[in-house]
């Protein structure tokens, strides 16, 4: 699992700047869920091959009464979810009473806490850091988040304490197909999990999960093994109750990352919300297969159903390959069909095809629709091969690929999807130009010609 790092500190110490630096984007996932404040942001980061999750808790420690006010429920939950805490202070402003109050609280939580002294650019680092030793935090890092100074070294040092996350392969698996059930509270996730586990008297093996709170539930149905990754804390069928479970964005993000197929459950009566789209966006970023289960469908009239379908079509335009299925988890309507869709999506995500067959498909597509001329150039597409799975990646090799318009790239992606019969999985088509054996030699040849011309001219003038 990706390590989770929580940013904590009083206002204006540079948490947002560091957050954007660590995630390398300003388009962070905003947790606008019931019970969560809007200033809590979740984002993915990566340094080298090491990935992590960053949580920005917002400013604490000023303007509140007592220690419970500064930390608050939101910051406490973020810290409890985190594997390590980055406690930011302002190196220019120096140590404040609010810093001391937050430090006392963090020391009592039994979490690894790293003191991050920000804004040390333009000042003497040793002098700026000296007074913060009074906080009693031994792990200390000095950075300038606005310029990126010291940030990579800091994050590399912090991540070194965590073991590398083991990679799952599609075939290791006594676990079978890993399926994450995600969604907002009270949309029927627990009821769906209960219904899926109870289908045709399957045997449930109770096995503790590898995440702190998500539960992994292996079971078998019609000879196919599955592992449901449930974020609602369900351990066995007898303990599933339809309640408004405590939702955790971190648990959902980790479940998505560890799954092979994601089932996003939405409430048909409410339609797809911005909160659903946030979860869907993380699923797309992770490259996972996706099924959208529209629950509580049987309680809608025909007019309302048409409205829901139209809205889904409009809001899912950026993921037209996502499979949408209408169910009633409470009554079991359509739940059995989910298994076939999950299996087909899983097979699509791990599809493999020999290079010669994929190249034949490419030749057929090019023969049916040649790449357009762009100026005096036309891209030449020579061969294709599978570059990875989950999601499947097709690497197309050729030349003059910079002249290939986006419309033609989409044409290839859509036609490859049709020919390979992919269902419910994203597909990445990447283009790689062949190396020119004469690249870099032309300038050297020209230089020699220029030098010969100069010698000739000097020789002529000498005569």
Record field, number of beta strands: 16
Helix proportion range = 25-40%
Note the quaternary state here. single chain
In DSSP terms, counting alpha (H) and pi (I) runs of 4 or more, how many helices?
A: 13
Tell me the β content.
15-25%
Structural class: alpha/beta
Q: What is the class of the largest domain in the CATH system?
A: Alpha Beta
Radius of gyration, whole Å: 28 Å
The CATH homologous superfamily of the largest domain corresponds to P-loop containing nucleotide triphosphate hydrolases
Mean pLDDT value: 80
Number of domains: 3
Overview of the molecule:
With 463 residues, the chain is α/β, with parallel strands linked by helices. It folds into three domains: 4-159, Rossmann fold, CATH 3.40.50; 177-345, P-loop containing nucleotide triphosphate hydrolases (Rossmann fold); 351-463, K homology (KH) domain (GMP Synthetase, Chain A, domain 3, 2-Layer Sandwich), CATH 3.30.300. It has 13 helices and 16 strands. The chain has helices spanning 15-23, 68-81, 97-107, 125-130, 151-159, 189-198, 249-258, 274-286, 302-315, 335-349, 355-368, 406-420, 441-462, and strands spanning 4-8, 29-30, 41-47, 50-56, 84-90, 113-118, 140-142, 177-183, 215-221, 224-230, 261-267, 289-295, 323-326, 380-388, 393-399, 428-433. The protein has a seven-stranded mixed β-sheet with strand order 2-3-4-1-5-6-7, sandwiched between helices. Helix 7 packs parallel to helix 8. The chain is flat. The N and C termini lie far apart (79 Å).
